[in-house]
Amino acid sequence: MNMTWIALIIGLIMLIMAFAAIYAKKLAVAIIAAGVVSLLASILYLTLAAPDVAMTEAAIGSGLSTIIFFYAINKIRKQSHD
Amino acid sequence: MIKKLIYILVLVGAGIIMAQLFAGFSGSTELSETARYYVESGPEETGAANLVTAVIVTYRGLDTLGEVTILFTVAAIIAFFMKTREQRDKPKRRVSEILTTGARILVPGTMLFGAYIFINGHLSPGGGFQGGAIIASGFALMLLAFPQANLSHKTIRWVESISGFSFVIIGVLGIFMAGGFLDNSILPLGNFGSLFSAGAIPIIYIFIGLKVGAELSNVVGHMHEKQKEI
To answer: How much is the pTM?
Structure first.
């Protein structure tokens, strides 16, 4: 029962963060929100007894892809200024 | 107006279908036939304490080879499109002191943790892909903290090629010395649960870890170099 509540709360925060990622005015905020969704998903995987999937999600979903998105918007911003 | 109505109808329809699927779902209490085979004879046949690894590297080894190949193709395509022209020498703005100091402490630990994960892939959760991803995120942190640095493409290329080649060679050795492609019993299975056990699984996972780490670091490195273009 306890686990269900944790999963519900995490799922709710994930939903809010996902909507924030869609509707945020600033792209940087949207990227951070998407990263938070991945991070919470990895916690959820951990509670569902899948530690290896959680590791992948944390490293790739919230680590690498966030950085790659930031590189991309940096590049786009630079090109639109020129 | 009609457009919105259609959206709402589609959403409600999807919701009803999902609700019915969810209502009819009851988690299976018994393992399927394949899963039972893996659970019952996996530890004996492969000697790996982590059953997931036994499935990924031995029973489904060919799939893993395919995944690594896909990743290689992705890295190669990104490298092709991210060819850099001239580069600035000086970074545009100073990196914050907190980031550099933090990276100095965290990067070696991250690398070590990644290596630990893929070396212990047959004993504890995780394995080549996870370890490689963690190593690549360590490199990403390093590049963020020290933007004037570049990853050596030559080293990455060599590490990647040699590990991919060795992975296939070990797989082919399995055909000649054991039951089939990527069979892990070309080496002695050893004591169940010790570091040197499970035959060729740790060696294969070390190569997968190096290969995945090199490929993902290559992607990040190319992105990073593209930033410094004038």
So the answer is: 0.81
